[in-house]
Design brief:
The chain has about 650 residues and is α/β, with parallel strands linked by helices. It is built from 20 helices and 17 strands.
């Protein structure tokens, strides 16, 4: 269903937190506030909610809140809890209605939204126990229709929702109103879209185990709320945020219905904003500062839009595509073209550790020291080879002293039957040779017993987690052997934040940072490679990067840090935009194959792993597609044609 936007055609002149765009003609049809990160944004939203609660309390009234689950609102709830504890914010006058619950679902299940809400909010505040409501996942099917009707009637009896908090699915859903849901849809049982099921696979321990259905509040009730705030963090949300905010109102993207709401806002971080026009092509929205990065971005965008290599762009191309002021600044397309072509050319190098005895003034890395000490930080045990396997190999082959630091054990991503296979292997091996380490035997037997009887979503015992961690450790060692890395240069950091046994990780702690610091201090590297990828489904990469950033900040006054350069690669899920790339390392067809076989060493991560994320391709396929795509883009822009390329951005301390 498509709506005619002109019926409610608004151009918003907005103030956003990061970008002063009041003067800009906006393409955005929903007021959108962009924050540098989700912490600051969540605090602002929590404060708005607290304001409503206090105001209603002053009036002697109830505040009726519509709440969401998922990863997006967690920090909002954490801030509300903090305000309750430290600032005396009371929830005595609060009534809540959650958007949804899986069906069927027992409230104490790990995946239940009842459990989620209790753990994330209700058990930590003074909300009266009868005041919070969630759809009931335990009802028999025949009672659902009546329940749904009554859920809406209850909201109405309280005078409707004062505030509705929303997340957005990767497919644009709100609540579990999947694409195709109508604007007047009611609270109902919904079959979950495949994308939603894939995104939930992590919580359920595999796609096959995900609930196929959920009860969701309908779009109509959401639209009736007096105020609606939708949260979105991370680049995996960016495409649908842009479609919802700038596209036409359509049931294909249910979040776009919020264009029709009088008082709805999107509160998002810069990553989720990255596909908005004001971020992608800011020169089309307002006057911009034409620095090197902006020029590069604009010219590359132009070349790809008009489908021409950079050196063939004409004055007319610039003028006809919103870049007349850039052209006016230079006078001739030719001059801009040459400059940008050179930027691109200079980012390509087959010498990621620098080329000894060569003029390095136009190379991404320094020629000296010729033999560099390098640490590759790999959040999970396979990110090194998946994301920068070609560069990893080159650094080794070009004689650098390469260390690899595996930041987490990656144990939750090993399937139970894989762990069982290993546990039984040890048990059978011991039996055959009558190996009599009774304690070890018992541990493995118990682990095997646990795995055979394990219920869905039950948390692994520490022993099982250890076995799973060992499996991944073995695979990582195997990759290092394959690349040629010596044993003493392989470091397993097992950062403690990761070791919860569940998807939900602990926040980064001092110990995590200290472990990273110690390694950097020991190696005193000239180069650090780290995953700058913020889009992995469980946020592990972000925590791992934060730990490195904090460690580096603490160490920055050490002498050796003056000559330490930090290169960021992207993890398995995304690639840098072509205009951001500062070092592109080409690969030949043989090198691509070599990398593929390196990725194959991670057998536990092949063939539909539990945490595949949103992409059904195997990791080696994603890596190859992505590396070949980067090479194709360079070629399209008029540079040499390579088989594949790995991409890096330099992070300056
Ligand atoms: C949750 C809900 C969903 C989520 C959406 C985003 O109650 O209704 O619409 O808000 O799937 O999930 P996260 O925030 O986990 O990315």
């Amino acid at each position: 269903m498509k709506f005619n936007n002109h019926s409610k055609h608004k151009y918003f002149y907005q103030r956003s937190t990061l970008f002063n765009m009041e003067q800009a003609i906006s393409y955005e049809r929903i007021p959108t506030l962009i924050y540098a990160d989700s912490d600051a944004a969540s605090r602002a939203v929590a404060h708005e909610i607290a304001g409503i609660i206090r105001q209603r309390s002053n009036e002697g009234k109830l505040a009726v809140l519509g709440l969401a689950t998922g990863s997006s609102p967690k920090k909002v709830y954490a801030e509300l809890i903090r305000m309750h504890r430290e600032e005396g914010l009371s929830f005595q006058n609060v009534v809540t209605f959650n958007l949804d619950e899986y069906y069927p679902m027992q409230p104490d299940s790990v995946q239940s939204y009842v459990r989620f809400m209790r753990e994330q909010l209700f058990d930590h505040i003074d909300i009266p126990s009868g005041n919070w409501h969630l759809p009931d996942g335990t009802l028999p099917l025949e009672k659902l229709a009546e329940f749904c009707k009554d859920y809406e009637a209850q909201i109405e009896r309280y005078g409707g929702l004062d505030f509705q908090l929303l997340g957005i699915g990767r497919n644009g859903h709100i609540g579990f109103n999947e694409p195709g849901s109508l604007v007047n849809s009611r609270t109902r049982l919904m079959t979950l879209d495949l994308t939603t099921q894939i995104d939930a696979a992590g919580d359920f321990g595999g796609l096959a185990k995900v609930s196929k259905k959920a009860i969701t509040m309908g779009v109509q009730k959401i639209m009736e709320a007096k105020r609606v705030v939708l949260l979105a963090w991370g680049e995996h949300k960016a495409t649908n945020v842009a479609r919802a905010v700038e596209g036409s109102v359509s049931s294909d993207v249910p979040a776009s219905y919020l264009q029709l709401h009088e008082n709805a806002s999107f509160v998002i971080d810069t990553a989720a904003a990255s596909q908005l026009t004001r971020m992608r092509t800011p020169w089309m929205v307002d006057s911009v500062n034409w620095d090197r990065a902006m020029i590069k971005k604009a010219v590359i965008h132009l070349a790809l839009t008009v489908n021409k290599p950079v050196l063939k762009l004409t004055n007319a191309d610039y003028n006809e595509n919103g870049l007349s002021d850039l052209l006016a600044l230079y006078g001739q397309a030719y001059d801009i073209n040459i400059e940008v072509f050179n930027y691109l050319q200079h980012s390509i190098t087959g010498w990621p550790g620098g080329k000894p005895n060569a003029d390095d003034s136009n190379r991404p890395e320094r020629a000296y020291p010729a033999k560099k000490k390098v640490i590759i930080f790999s959040p999970h045990p396979d990110d090194d080879i998946i994301s920068m396997g070609g560069t990893f190999q080159r650094l080794h082959d070009q004689g650098h002293d390469v260390h690899v630091a595996y930041q987490t054990s990656g144990n939750i991503a090993v399937a139970d039957d894989e762990a069982l296979r290993f546990a039984e292997f040890v048990v059978d091996f011991n039996e055959r040779f009558e190996a009599n380490n009774a304690k070890a035997n018992r541990i493995y037997r118990e682990a095997a017993k646990f795995l055979k009887a394990k219920k869905d979503s039950e948390i692994d015992t520490p022993e099982v987690r250890y076995i799973k961690g060992l499996i991944r450790r073995g695979e990582a060692k195997n990759t290092c052997r394959y690349v040629g890395i010596k044993k003493e240069n392989i470091h397993f950091l097992d950062m403690p934040f990761y070791e919860t046994g569940t998807i939900q990780k602990n926040p980064i702690g001092e110990k995590d940072v200290e472990i990273v610091m110690n390694l950097i201090d020991e190696v005193q590297p000239h180069q650090i490679y780290a995953a700058g990828d913020l889009a992995d489904p469980h946020g592990t990469h972000k925590v791992c990067l934060d730990a490195i950033i904090q460690a580096v900040q603490k160490l920055k006054h050490r002498e050796y840090m003056n000559s330490c350069w930090i290169w960021l690669y992207k993890g398995a899920w995304q690639e840098w935009d072509i205009d951001q790339i500062e070092m592109a390392v080409p690969m030949s067809p043989d090198q691509v194959l070599k990398k593929r076989y390196g990725i194959f060493k991670h057998q536990s991560q092949k063939d539909g792993v539990p945490f595949q994320g949103s992409d059904a391709r195997e990791f080696w396929q994603r890596a190859e597609d992505r590396n070949s795509n980067t090479a194709k883009l360079y070629n399209k822009l008029g540079l040499a044609e390579y088989e594949a390329m790995e991409a890096f951005v330099r992070w300056k301390i």
